[in-house]
Amino acid sequence: MKKLFTQTLLLLAFALTATVAFAQPSNDQPCGAIAVILNDPPITYNNSTATGDANEVGPTANDCITGWCELSVDSTMWYTFIAPASGAVTANTCITGVGFDTQLAIYSATDCADYSTFTLMGANDDTPGGCTGSGSNWASTLDIDALIPGNTYYLQVDGYFGQTGDFQLEVLASTPKASVKWVNNCADALGATVDIRVNGELVVDNLAFRSHTNFIDVTANEAVTITVNDMNSVDDSAPLYSVVMTLDAAKNYIAVGNGILSSTGYSPAVPFAFSMFDNAALNNVTTDSFATLLLHGSTDAPSTVDVEDFNTGTTLFNDLAYGQFYGTDYTLLPAGLYSLDLADASGNNLGLTYCANLEFAPANIIVIASGFVNPANNSGGPGFGLFTFNNNFGGAFTPLMAGACIAPANDQPCNATTLVVNDFPTAGSNMFATAEEDEAHPPGTACQDSIGWCAFDSSATISVWYKFIAPVGGTVTVTTCLPGTSLDSQVAVYTVGNCSDYSTYTLLGANDDAIGGCTGANTTFASILTLNGLTPGNNYYVQVDGYGGSDNPFNIQVTAPVGVNEIANKRAFSVYPNPAKEVLTVKYAGSAPVQVYDSRGALVLTQRVTGQATLDISNLSDGVYTMSVMESDQVQTLRFVVE
């Protein structure tokens, strides 16, 4: 009896301990929210026992800066605060002592027990630019404006994918701010690198020509003085340019500096000014197209231009004036290749065509006309071009390639390039290749496999096509693991009934990354695929694609094993001296052409050798070269050094 009584007490003690240990926090739900006093010192909390309600609200924007990176609620705790007179606050967990990846959201609500009355005001998962003031780089900072002074708002704190632990929280009254992306498109030498100050405070340091910042918060709802200063400035006392403007806290801006700062040396000397776009999006506008802004920022180009599609002759952007963005919102362009042709307002072609590769949506991009059409009249400044930059990030402009976008001839299977088995490698590129609707592609398997492509990229995006005739023996190796291959390639081989009908394609094998890795190319992620049992004399099709939509040069070769007797009877092949300087002697016990390739795989020299020959290599740069000789179906290679 005594033993049973003792066991009962132990069970009761354990139950009480468990209840205490696993009790939900009092603010696990909004109606139990803890009131936070604005501007009070941070307080430490712990969400280890917090839970998420079945119907609990959470942000809907799948964006780490203006929403949450993941859209579930797992370990939430709730707080309230009263909006200050400015209507602006900063909620922050980027504080010493925060040990996990937090995410924040602020709501207005009329009934704490009814989630249908909650309206999301703003959210943040990761502090813009990263958090350096806490134990987690992914702690959160949420700046929000336009709150109603005196009203109570609800603050939700959660852990990314259910992370828990100690965190510190503060809510600070702040001033209204607008987010601004600063862009330097000033082709004047005085504007090569500048500082930008707001009311004397440095907000952008050393912004180079043809570069842009991330979005930066700037005081809004009151007049501020914005100055462009020399890169060595210590204050705004000697600005290169100054303007007073009032930014709206409810808007986000893209501010592009265009024009001339110098008093002489430029014609026409269009004065410097900021082109302001006040409807900027902080994250992607769509999921299936390019949200595009276009800005005319070239001072000596025609004052008004049209942008046409070179291939169709249709006008994409009409009557774009200097210093202006096209329209008041982003223009949605379906993913694809765009050959942009410029004309003046009268429709006269300016002879300026550029290729915009907009294949992989979604993205918000800005296309900007930059530089001088006639540098000689503008102090020899930078030449004209069209450039792009990503709306969502900072960095340098990306130049568009001059000329029309031209898809490779073998972009489609019916135009496949023929490969001769055991011939020299064939140079290829998938730049500007396109993906056809329902184009055949292997399944997603393991990257180092012979039946599929990496599971993370099991689709054909920018593939090109080859074909070959199976040799006697029915065994071939298809490889891009060759000198000169920079493409992270993925290859596949098919039998084909009708080249224009993908339903007649039967996959025989595929490889993304050479099993064991590739050491013979400029990338370790080139491909090697060996197939057996092919029908001699039959045609087979090879698909070469770029992992993740990458486009780079590559070399491709199809080889077949050489017979035992042929291997034994390979003709002697050698070179000397090695290293060599001006001339190279080649010995080959036969008669055949030899070909020399540089380290990029480019053919640099061809000469027939009969027994022995001397090659003039005086024009070759120092480096490692590959020499190949082929006679019948024998291929031999060796390397030599030029110094």
Q: Could you tell me how far the N terminus lies from the C terminus, measured between alpha carbons in angstroms?
A: 97 Å
Biggest sheet statistics: 5 strands, mixed
Strand order of the largest sheet: 1-3-8-5-6
Average pLDDT works out at 89
Uncertain segments of ≥5 residues (pLDDT<50)? 1-21, 563-568
Query: Helix count, per DSSP?
Result: 2
Could you characterize what this model shows?
This protein is mainly β. Helices cover 4% and strands 43% of the residues. It contains two helices and 44 strands. The strands form ten sheets. Strands 1-3-8-5-6 form a five-stranded mixed sheet, with no helix packed on it. The chain has a five-stranded mixed sheet with strand order 17-16-10-13-26, with no helix packed on it. The longest helix is centred in the N-terminal third of the chain and has 20 residues, at 2-21. It is globular, with a radius of gyration of 32 Å. Residues 1-21 and 563-568 have low confidence and may be disordered.
